[in-house]
Amino acid sequence: MMKTRVCEVLGIEYPIIQGGMVYICTPELAAAVSNAGGLGQLTCITGRKDPDTLRANIRRTRELTNKPFAVNIPLIMPNAEQLVAAAVEEKVDVITTSAGNPKKFTSYIKEHGVRVCHVVPSVKLGQKAQEAGVDIIVAEGWEAGGHNAYDDVTTMVLIPQITRAVDIPVVAAGGIADARGLVAAFVLGAEGVQMGTRFIMTRECAAHENMKKAIAQATDTATVVTGRAFGPTRVLKNALAADILSWENQGMTAAEILERIGSGRSERALLHGDIEQGSPMSGQIAGLLREVTSVQELFDSILGEIRPVLEKAGKMLLGG
Amino acid sequence: MMKTRVCEVLGIEYPIIQGGMVYICTPELAAAVSNAGGLGQLTCITGRKDPDTLRANIRRTRELTNKPFAVNIPLIMPNAEQLVAAAVEEKVDVITTSAGNPKKFTSYIKEHGVRVCHVVPSVKLGQKAQEAGVDIIVAEGWEAGGHNAYDDVTTMVLIPQITRAVDIPVVAAGGIADARGLVAAFVLGAEGVQMGTRFIMTRECAAHENMKKAIAQATDTATVVTGRAFGPTRVLKNALAADILSWENQGMTAAEILERIGSGRSERALLHGDIEQGSPMSGQIAGLLREVTSVQELFDSILGEIRPVLEKAGKMLLGG
Question: What is the mean pLDDT of residues B144-163?
């Protein structure tokens, strides 16, 4: 076990969390991550988004691993209360809440012996999460894929500021996909990392083949944030994103744009492979990724590279 | 001298460059940075923006230091050719070009024995700068203050991608203000750092007292990028920025917005202290900064913290 509070609190060997990604966080992926020594994570936005589906997914994951794993529940879900209750009753090890007020469920979850992580995009919301009693803050920078905050605070500046402002452990998310990113996050003050896009590029991830190919071909400038005024979302640049940006620039209202977008766009890209008309959520680190590996290969690679990365930087900066 | 190619190429002791900031990069600031062992930098956008003013500033800097220093010349300046010629004739040590095609002047500058750095916001433009023959690439992330690129590639994701794509040394810029930021940049693959906002917070910087106060009071979410469609610029959130964003959201054209903004807004904030109606350019790292120090105190603090920062990360990640 690495000597970080994140490992102690979560009972995991390595402080590497698989982020909650809508539709593609299956029991198979979560179990593979937990079996490799990290923290796998289901989301309630997989399948039918109802408590029973979530229960089934938790039970299936439990069959595949005896290590701790998490469930991500965005608190804007209309049935958030039932989802939280279901996850607690199924005795999941960790619940990660996001997109809402951490005061609402943290006490309830903790009273039932479940650990709580809360995802925040800024120092102020980090402080509120600490006040609400969460165990760990996941501080997510602007470069992250999928749903983002309205402010564009990046990982590089968020981590040193939030770790100064709170006492509880901070996990860095956004822009991390290898040992360099992990070590940089620790240098900035984090005690763990959460990765999303990198886990799409694993064999265990249920994302459509087209999605993996699109990430493999992405450059550093391949993603864009749409919906800045009504729900910022980072996706691979495509026909749909170009349309949304053009509607935004024309001054169209959020309601008009949302009506044109309709529903099911994320599923369409992530599960059905329609990269152009779907919403292919991806972080900016996509440009670094070329290959699909197994989850175990990913862990082996990161863990094997930590020492060389630290030594190379140390040699340049300290000599010897 | 630290063992990085950036130090070797530029002939400096520490791989810390003071970024080119319009109006406030005076000979006094540049000389203080160079005397501390970094690379100080004048800009051609100080005073009258003509070759003679630049010559006078270079000569004045030479009186204050016998160490190498640089001049930043944005290539969109209408008189860029004369400015480059003046800097070369005055035998400045380094010219940093930005905002334009590096093919235009790199050969000319290098033939006269002057080193060339070129500022880029993406891998593609980094590759073009290398092809043009520049000595060093300054890779600037989205969190940087002042004029930014159209794409929002952050430092955390830009550095590992650009250092994989080019062979020449890369300096990281954007979001760096202390030893943690510097070490993180090196871990990600950089061989030097450039800082802007942190140098505003030095006693030697000519920025107005109101500007320094505004940065000292800033939070992590205190900055915003305006002009996304016609010239992205990161500033402290203020009345002017709110107006520009509202005009943008109304679908107003770039020409209409630029006419309303008028000229002289940066000078108004940076030199005259009008934080609300001026353009108070600042990076996102402003939220980390609380105090004004001397340039020498800044260098002492960063250099003294490198070893503890590396050791703390190493202890957590490698144990022992």
Answer: 96
**Among A141, A219, A224, beta carbon nearest to B123:** A219
Domain count, chain B: 2
B200 is a domain residue = no
Find the CB nearest B184 among A152, A184, A191.
A184
- Rounded to a whole number of angstroms, the distance between the first and last alpha carbons of chain A is 29
User: CB contact, 8 Å: A151 with chain B?
Assistant: yes
Angle at A165 between CA B199 and CA B298, to 5 degrees: 20
Residue with tokens 């040394």: B169
Domain identity same for A88 and A180: yes
Q: Give the residue on B whose Cα is nearest the Cα of A175.
A: B157
| A307 in reach of chain B (CB within 8 A) | yes
Q: Indicate if A115 and A224 belong to the same structural domain.
A: no
For A20, which DSSP code? P
Burial of B151 from C-beta contacts in 10 A (0-12 / 13-18 / 19+): buried
Looking at the structure, do residues B218 and B186 belong to the same domain, yes or no? no
Show which of residues 33-72 on chain A sit within 8 Å of chain B, judged by CB atoms.
none
Q: How near does any CA of chain B get to the CA of A108, in Å?
A: 31
Q: How far is A51 from chain B (nearest CA, A)?
A: 36
Question: Looking at residue A320, what is its pLDDT?
Answer: 60
CA separation (Å) from A62 to A31, A296, B11?
Answer: 8, 19, 59
Which tokens is B281 given?
Answer: 């350019």
Tens digit of each residue's pLDDT (9 = 90 or more) over A180-224:
999 999 999 999 999 999 999 999 999 999 999 999 999 999 999
Residue A131 and residue A144 in one domain: yes
B-facing residues of A in 268-287 (CB < 8 A) are 283-285, 287
A281 and A295: one domain?
no
Which residues are registered as beta bridge partners of A41? A70
> What residues pair up with B170 in beta bridges, in sequence order?
B137
Q: Over range A113-132, report the average pLDDT.
A: 98
How far is it, in rounded angstroms, from Cα B212 to Cα A25?
46
Task: State the smallest CA–CA distance between residue B72 and chain A in angstroms.
Answer: 25
Chain A touched by B255 (CB under 8 Å): no
- Tell me, what's the pLDDT at A2? 86
Supply the ipTM of this predicted assembly: 0.97
Residue B223, in any domain of the structure? yes
| Cross-chain Cβ contact B309/A180 below 8 Å | no
pLDDT in tens, B281-300: 999 999 999 999 999 999 99
As a whole number of angstroms, the distance between CA A107 and CA B141 comes to: 39
Amino acid at A117: C
Same domain membership, residue A95 and residue A159: yes
Q: Assess if residue A3 is contained within a domain.
A: no
- Select from A142, A156, A223 the residue whose CB has the most chain B CBs within 10 Å, as the one to mutate to test that interface: A156
Are A179 and A230 part of one and the same domain?
no
Residues B175 and B67 in one domain: yes
How near does any CA of chain B get to the CA of A263, in Å?
24
User: Could you tell me the residue range of the domain that residue B294 belongs to?
Assistant: 12-141+153-195+290-318
- For A136-191, how does the pLDDT look when each residue is reduced to its tens digit (9 = 90+)? 999 999 999 999 999 999 999 999 999 999 999 999 999 999 999 999 999 999 99
